[in-house]
Design brief:
CATH topology: Alpha-Beta Plaits
Strand order of the largest sheet: 2-3-1-4
Distance between the termini: 13 Å
Structural class: alpha+beta
CATH class: Alpha Beta
Order of helices and strands: EHEHEHE
Number of strands: 4
């Protein structure tokens, strides 16, 4: 069964190009280690909430944009094995591909697909 890793983060708006380069460098590495599909989305219509919202969840600052991303894996097992390989891959280490955002405010999790249409 397909498995999804999901991510929400706040990226300084001025770092849009740096984030794109970061993502373009990392995406093929995820695919090399078993991911089927990698999607990075730059927030375009992400409203502030009163109780909850994407901006609130990542503590978005005025000069930041919310990014919503996901990685599709063929299964949970493929994800667990692939993610370990990705995290060990020197090409994604901070010195080789620094994150152009505050990783401490990134929300992430793995999800079992219930419905796929």
């Amino acid at each position: 069964m397909t498995y999804i890793d999901g991510f929400v983060l706040a990226v300084p708006t001025a770092n849009r190009d740096a984030f794109r380069k970061h993502a373009e460098m990392a995406a093929p590495i995820f695919k090399e280690h078993g991911a089927v599909h990698v999607v990075e989305c730059w927030g375009d219509d992400v409203p502030d909430g009163k109780l909850t919202s994407f901006p609130m969840a990542v503590q978005k600052k005025d000069d930041e944009t919310v990014v919503f991303s996901w990685i599709v894996w063929p299964s949970r097992q493929a994800r667990d094995e692939g993610m370990k390989k990705v995290m060990d891959d020197p090409r994604v280490q901070a010195d080789a591909n620094p994150m152009p955002f505050d990783g401490k405010r990134m929300i992430f999790g793995g999800f079992e697909v219930l419905v796929e249409a």
